[in-house]
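Archive maintenance. Older records in this collection stored only the sequence; we are now back-filling the structure field for every entry so that each record is complete. The fields below show one back-filled record exactly as it appears after the update. Entries are processed alphabetically, and DUF2177 family protein is next in the queue.

ARCHIVE ENTRY
Title: DUF2177 family protein
Organism field: Candidatus Dojkabacteria bacterium
Length field: 133
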Amino acid sequence: MFIKLFLISLPVFFVIDMVWLGLVAKSFYRDQIGFLMTPNINWVAAIIFYLIFIAGLVFFVIVPAVEKGSWMYALTIGALFGFITYATYDLTNLATLKDWPLLVTLVDLVWGAVLGALVSFLTYSIFTKFFGT
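Back-filled structure field:
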């Protein structure tokens, strides 16, 4: 079940996050932390993050949601997982980096929760539609 859920969640996560990063919030991040951003994305690091984040989401949130037969579990615990994981990054940056904007931290915490909730709920929904519970 883990592999199926992982393979479903990969494109779901990628599409949602690319819409956020590439369309919705692109200018926000450039305006807020452009002075820290590299002109060339380190795709190896980005892919490793995506794989680890998605594996954690599947293991800790989506598999238990499917086992419980609860889309609400996927939605709420997915939001909590996203919030906690993004808080780790953003609050560490706020604590250790000079001039890291509080606004970026706040936006990212909300985004982490939304991303975790959406990916978990959509993956759960797709899986249960095609494979049952």
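Update note: The chain has a mean pLDDT of 96. DSSP finds five helices and no strands in the chain.
Entry marked complete.
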